[in-house]
Write a structure and sequence with these properties.
Largest sheet: 5 strands, mixed
Distance between the termini: 25 Å
Order of helices and strands: HHEEEEEHHH
Structural class: alpha/beta
Shape: globular
Strand content: 15-25%
Number of domains: 1
CATH topology: Mannitol-specific EII, Chain A
Length: 124
Amino acid sequence: MVDLLAASPLVEDPEELHRAVLEREKILSTGIGLGIAVPHAKVPSADDIVAGIGKTQVPIDYGSIDDEPVRIVVMIAAAPYQQDDYIRALASVTLFLKNNEVRASIIAAETREEIAELIARGSR
């Protein structure tokens, strides 16, 4: 997921993001339940909020709060000064993914474009 975000020009230092996400996970797992993980970090090398979504073919043990494996991962990075927008982004992603139909559709999607369309429809 770090590599996905690092492909964006908004992330200047992928290693810094990687370290920050791992440090955040040490505090408390970002496996929020329902097969969802939302690893996130604020890093000086992020020029703006950036996010990426991925799904796993095989569920992974993530140490989630409900002890269920994860199938959907959304990583979010932001600059340290973006606290309010960062919190809103985390809340929006969480709320969006708590919808059973959304999760099922993401897992069933066969292409990136299908997932992008689901997200675009959800943000309207």
